[in-house]
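3.2 Worked example (two chains)
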Amino acid sequence: MILSLILKEKSLFEELYEYFYEKYFSVDMPYLENFKVQSNALFSFRTIIIGITIGIIIASAASVYNKRHLGAFIRTMIEKDCLGPEKAMTLEALGYDKRLGVAMAVKSGGTLSRWARCREEDEFYAAVALKKAEFEEAHSSDKKPPKFVEPEFKRDYKTMHFYLPEEKKYAAEVKFDPKGSRWGGVIIVAIFAIVLCAFLCYILPDAVKLVDNFITVMNE
């Protein structure tokens, strides 16, 4: 009984897939005199158009998120004069210790890692540079000196101190300026992009046929 229900459910999904594929993705290829274009080629073009549309929507949402949410953290650092290693503060002191998005962004390789500098990281790499210089000096007389392996530093957002370099203050204010960044704008972009995507996917076969007819006329 259960197996039969699973099979029925599977067949239902298969029917839905076939319906949407036939309605929105399958291409009725017109007769072309000058091109040898298969249906799967137009399907690929449609897939690319859909992929670009999704990319535009994601990029628009990411831009608003970065400027409004992550940018709020940068603006807080500026407001609290957290503009140098001697003025560095923890996320808790800045009021962002509970913000997982900010915590992930300030970690090594995160979105804000090159803006929110870490005092402990600066001290770590300064010590590494000193050790590297001592190592190279100690092996300067070797014919084949060994390679110095630099250790990797990992930021601990819970305990470490962060700051915005003074020289990056203006650039950060411009980059993370929230003016004009609204979630409503993302919705408008998404609607426009989806409508344009649907239109391009719909006219694609006719557009190819139009180009083919134009070439035929020019060759006569």
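3.2.1 Second chain
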Amino acid sequence: MNELFGFNKKKAASKEGFVRHDGNSFVLPNGSIFAKSDLTLDQLNQIDWANGDLSWLTKSSFNADKLFVNASRQVVTNFSGVWNGGDFKGEKFLGVFNQGTFQGNLKTSFDRWKPSPYKFVDGTVSDYQDGLLGIKKINATVFDVNSASKSVSLLSIPLGYHVNISDTNGMMHSFTVVKTLDSTDSVFVLQSTTGSRNKAVISWSELRGSSQGRFELNTTITAGKKFTIPKVFNGDPVGVISYIEVSPKKTNTSINPTNPNNPNSQNKNNQNSVYKFNLADLAPLRFNSGSRKPLITLKFDTQNEVDEFGKMNSEIKSGYFKYHLKTIVNALQFDVIDGYGKNVYLQDIFGRVQGSKKAPADVQNSLNWLERFMRIFIINIVAAKKHNGQYIDSPAIQAKVMKQIAQAIVYYLPAQNPSKAPATKPTVKSMGKSKSKPVSKKTKFIKESISQEIFKKMFS
């Protein structure tokens, strides 16, 4: 076989619609060249190149080492070479696709596709594991509104990976990439693992839409914007995206009381779930317990509480706690906010300082997340051992965790408001959750200043 790039492009024959020989190559009337065909020159010239089903080739630009044609079906069965423009409509393509539109089976590596994926109209691809239509697959990563890159393409997410999205309402939404455009068909399958847990089956034509702009909306997740991939999270309201995590790890959406790391073994009828939690996961907070793990006990009375904590636990393990706490502290440090604002569940860790400044969207998202942490996590802390056969609340441990959070925050509260610091730690009831659990006497809320050097060490 002749080398692809060894030919000199010549002018087309004067008679329109006929193929001519030029040395070792065939030349179409538009000047496009192919070195080898499964048809003879006479057979090629029986084809109506001007008006027939293969006329698209005469309106395109290419330089090929192979162009096989089924004359009876009027289709290109095999193309190998470089496509430089026009609408490819053949059965099999191998080579470099520089520009134009494509319909067929793309039998080449993903990085040899050069235009926007939108130019892929319909068909299949053979290379989709390492990349897809010119877009390389990414490793585990996170994006937020402050990242240099705020967007991730659906085409760049590896098969089996999980996408965890936190929104400005403080809620997390997750889905798994089950299938993409591949060698069998052009259907995408995305399985939601939170909320309604629906399976989204999306055709390539749906994702492609009617324009380049619509395609980008349908295939891109961007921090600071709404979620726009169709069919995913149907019926589940998603706020403005504040944080995106792409990970090979599955998000735990429910916790098993005996094996919390295996949500599939969860007994859905269990209404009294108890979970051991390692406080070391609440980095950058530090809890001294000697050589032992700083474990605490959490008890949930309903399956809804179990599910909610499953989401929260996954977010904590993904670094959300440190991210949101740091966002809040930075906002206080630079005088972006001056109190807990509308998040009343946070008033005690803010020294009862409400402030008057309206938080920007990213900071409000972090305040919402921390408030959700208080409601889901703090008020469900119980003593490790049962009392008279029942788990009871542990205000002392609740205060211990709250104290650590408060120490990171109160240092940056306005100096003119020290008198608003609370004298006592609130009871469970005052935090908005009424339970029949026995509650011991109120624990003093300790408001301590910590040096800026200590704070820096916490977030180092």
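3.3 Remarks
The radius of gyration is 31 Å.
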